Amino acid sequence: MLMSASVPPRRVVVLGSTGSIGRQTLAVIAAFAPHWQVVGLAAGRNISLLAEQAERFRPEVIWFEGAESTPWAGPGSVEPPEEMVTRPEVDTVVVATSGRAGLVPTLRALEAGKIVALATKEVLVIAGSLVVRAARAGGGEVRPVDSEHNALWQCLDGEADGVLDPTWDQPLVPGRFSPGRVSRLILTASGGPFRDWPLDRLGQVLPEHALRHPTWRMGRKVTVDSATLMNKGLEVIEARWLFGAPWDRIDVLLHPESLVHALVEFTDGSIKAQLGPTDMRLPIQYALSYPLRLPNRDLPRLDLAAARSLTFCRPDPDRYPCFELAVQAGRLGRTYPVVLAAADEAAVDLFCEGRVRFTDIPGLIRQALEAHGPLPNPSLEDILQLYDETQARVKEAVECRRC
Amino acid sequence: MLMSASVPPRRVVVLGSTGSIGRQTLAVIAAFAPHWQVVGLAAGRNISLLAEQAERFRPEVIWFEGAESTPWAGPGSVEPPEEMVTRPEVDTVVVATSGRAGLVPTLRALEAGKIVALATKEVLVIAGSLVVRAARAGGGEVRPVDSEHNALWQCLDGEADGVLDPTWDQPLVPGRFSPGRVSRLILTASGGPFRDWPLDRLGQVLPEHALRHPTWRMGRKVTVDSATLMNKGLEVIEARWLFGAPWDRIDVLLHPESLVHALVEFTDGSIKAQLGPTDMRLPIQYALSYPLRLPNRDLPRLDLAAARSLTFCRPDPDRYPCFELAVQAGRLGRTYPVVLAAADEAAVDLFCEGRVRFTDIPGLIRQALEAHGPLPNPSLEDILQLYDETQARVKEAVECRRC
Asked: Domains in chain A and their CATH numbers?
């Protein structure tokens, strides 16, 4: 007889509840009801799905784009995300919005001492230093939901002996590990659907090709970012903030099967890897259940004997120029990552709308980075303004080219 | 600048110093001299190598087969293993003898509260309950050196939340993990050199074929045991004692590349794996440095991008009857594992001497197990006597068959 872990209570706000991660978060919460409850839901424009979710999960508060002026007949009262996350009954906020929308609620939640289960890469990429400051000020903690960072977190947790390394910053993730033990963090990447396409055919890639990810089912933006490997560049920047790792200790390997989510190499040459089925509910659940692990029959198991073989290789820089741009912007720091993320979001939009080619994406981002005069200590307002301006500028540039 | 871990002092006895693991242990100790020192060395019949080792490492005490009656001119005085391991200045004993020779010194060391870095599978297989009792009585601890168990230990360490599982026994390994988090321990096996031979050709296997292991360089006995998969069966029994795991939670996968040494599946479906180059110095060093990890430039690094692909499959029971015999003997418990280990040692000797065929090995072991009337609570003397009697009986049976 197994004496399973008793499920700890969680009272959760889900930002981006109608997106891919948001829906999977609600599936995980449902598996542990009534111990896990939804306090708040915030969505974008998919109001019908939000209404369904509200019927099922009975949140106290909800939000959607235009909620100020649109009547809401469903359960829960209307409250903006940055307010709902600070409610005293909330302990955990899942941030799974796309783009910059998650930033302000993340900062407010951390300042209020909440646990932030973070799925939105852009938050740390564009405002890592503000997130660190908010977490320190309010005692909040950041738990990575991204499968790669969640995997690094799992591999590092418990690897503690008090050995320091002053080239590392203090990590944002909870748990105990000693930077002095770690020699490399290795993120894996599927390489996207065009890993094996001839380079000279990449100009012909259509949005419907890019949206067909080989291993993960995800939202539109992140799927295109996987195809350009921008996704992995953003994750390198994210890893730097989450774990405090110096740039030269973060590495990327292509791993087309997406079963090994990340690896950590330690100073003695030993490597730990985290593996699992390509199902985001596993890292979401770990982020919510930590420091416990909870059995969940809804989740698939990975049968390695049934898996194809696991392969690894280095990414080809000629195939993935966006990856290098991201790492360069990360290393330059200051507001370069803001421009990177904003230009990428605009470029992906333009590509999905059929207005630029797949191979135009890196050029648009490079242009924006080259034109940028960085700010040394940007405020939240600086960042948000720069983000919006950069997006507008990238879109304008394409408009002008066409006229 | 990396503030590396300061090397803790270790004063070590190496039993089986002239064997494969013993030599590699001395190489690791040399890398951390003068912090790590050799107090005692014990060998079998390779006295010339022992003399070289003694010249280099200047032990206080030495031992070899026949030392009672043979003069010793080298450094160090002569002292039997079971005495040298209890010396007050000793903190760690590496047990890397073959067969049953390591048993008594292991028990004495544990009773004296020492750390035992255990490489000899037979010790736990034949006398697991005595080892547990000795460790409890004297406060000693067992640290696995075998790459697979060392890997399990690394994957489990730190996975603690206090959740119990009464089907597990208390583990022998140090460190913190909660059985209630663990759903499966998975040992990997190369499958040996005959993994892909036609089954009907296995009768033609010669000792020189069996001694050509595809991935690891090891001693003769363990190399043949890898070819029959007996090795992995013994390791399942060992894992049961080291980690306290119930039988049905220990699994084996063939993994021809031998880069993933073991995996742990947790209750939430997440899997952690430990990987490293096929070099026993890594697990030896971890067993000696634990709870620290120490950088060591002598050790190779694993470059996954350069590695062939990693593959996994279930072992074919028709190809590896010894594996099933071992697991059956383990599950039967009592003195069955003693008979298993002794009969296997005798059968491997006979095979290496060219007196039986490779495919005769499982039959000889099965015969010995079937003839056995088990003892419920064997003493040390019972076990040693049974071991020697079983070996003699297996060899006699073959002699009789020939006359």
From this structure: 10-144 (3.40.50.720), 146-277+299-321 (no CATH), 333-403 (1.10.1740.10)
